[in-house]
Structure formats: C-alpha cells, structure tokens
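Something for you to look into today, if you have time. What I am after is a single protein written out in full by you. I want to see for myself how the chain folds. Could you add the entry underneath, on a fresh line?
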Amino acid sequence: MQYAQLRAFHAVALHGGFSKAAEALRLTQPAISDQVRRLEQEFGVSLFDRRPRSVEPTAIGRRLLAATRRFFDAEQEARDILTAARSLSAGSLTMYTDAPYLAMRLIAEFRNRHPGIEIKVLTGNAEHCLESVLDFRADVAISAATRQDARLTSLPLHREPLAAVMVPDHPLALAESIRLAELIREPLIFREPLSVTRRLFEDDLARRGISCVPAMEVESREALVEAVSSGLGIGVMAPSELGSDRRLVSVPISDARSVMTDSLVKLADRPPSTIIDAVFDVAAELTAAGE
C-alpha cells in the first residue's frame, strides 16, 4: 500500500468519480484508475461499485474512507502547524536566563513582532542556563557564563563592569568611585561560588593580590539585593541588574578590570528553527541599536 494509492482512493470517494478525482489531483484519469486498481489487487478487495455515470464506495470502501479522512485531516493539521511555525504566527519558545532585565527587554520586542508565539521564561544561575540548552530543556538562554563550548553558538548582548552596590545613606554612597582595597574593609556580601559575578570579582581581587573573606554568602541576585537593602553589607554586581530599585545605589570600582558579558545562547547543531532564528534576529537588532 502506497501513499499515492490511498490519495487516489480518497479523491475518488470524495468526488464521486475518477474524472473529478483526476481533476482535483491534477493527474490523468488513467493514472488515478491505475492507483485504485493496484490497491484493490494488493488486498483482494473491491473498493467501488463502478456505474456508468458514477462510482460508489463498497462497504469496505466506506470503512476505508473513514480511515483516510482521519489520515488526511491529520496530515493537513500537521501542515497547518508547520506552516504557522514557519510564518511565526504560532509555536512556543522556552528561555532560561540569569539576567531577567535583559530577557524581558528582548521578549517584549519579540512579542511585539510575533504575538502568536507562546513564551516561557525560567531563571537560574549562569551555568544552569547553559546546561538547560545543552540538555534540551530550553530553546535559548541568556547567560553570563564564560566557558567555551563548541556545542553552543552565542550572541553577546550586553557588557558592563561590576560595581559596588549599597544603601543610599552608606558613607561611600556619594563617592565617585571606590578602590578594591577600600571595598574589602567593608562587610561584603558574596554570591554563591558558581556565580559568574563572584568569579569575576575574585579574579579582580587576585590580580591585586588581595584576599577577602565575605561577611555573608547568598544564592541569588535577588537575595543579594535584599541583603544589601537590609543594611547587612555591600554587594558587587552589574549596575543594570538593579533595574528601577531605588533602595540601592551603585559606585564604580576604579581598579576593577572584569566585565560582565551576557550572551544569547543556542545549540550550534540544533535543527533549523524559524522561532529561534527570529529571537536571534531581534536580539542582534536591539544590540546594534544600543551601541
């Protein structure tokens, strides 16, 4: 049994004749007749009662027609799904991010252009975001992780030096900048060991030959902001991560050299995806516009 045979049978049954079926499928009548005849011969059945001016499905033909209706309806549904995805009028996208402030800016512009795409945004630390792409839990990720991996393709979105963040009434809050040696005299709140922010800050300290024991360690950006806002110490982060939170101010670290780079990441060898390509196109435009 071949696809062409089922298609020929289905057209004849729907249109009530071989000539009309041939016209609908843009084939010759002999070609349609031959496909139906081969199907009948293969299974030793008669699918149509052939009459001078019309044909009618036999009992087995009617049962087969019910099955081919479901088959070709499903085929059309699959075609509609794929066509909609290609035109970006439907589909879904899962993103993991360690920088929600960047993700929402990107998602907002993407949604303006493609409102039919269902989007799920999940958060995690930088390494977790990369792993979510590698194990297919996410289509794309925004991550500040710096490790090189040939399995991934990335597009840099934002670069920013780290700064000290503190409450506005802190004695250092009005300083134009602060040096690392001054900073470590204050109670410092560090992110967790896998945090890119922490690694970059410790690299700067190591370059200056400075050792530091944090007064407190927290596991997320949100926890860091809350701890600093509560007056528990000074934190280090990219200033843009504060967003519109007026409870804190940022002060540049004059002798720090590390720069936080957040990138949009996808699998390098993932099958082509119109949706993922569109996300990267929007990201590239936003990044270019911001330069």
About this structure: The longest strand covers residues 152-161. The mean pLDDT is 91. The longest helix spans residues 59-86. The CA atoms of residues 43 and 185 lie 88 Å apart.
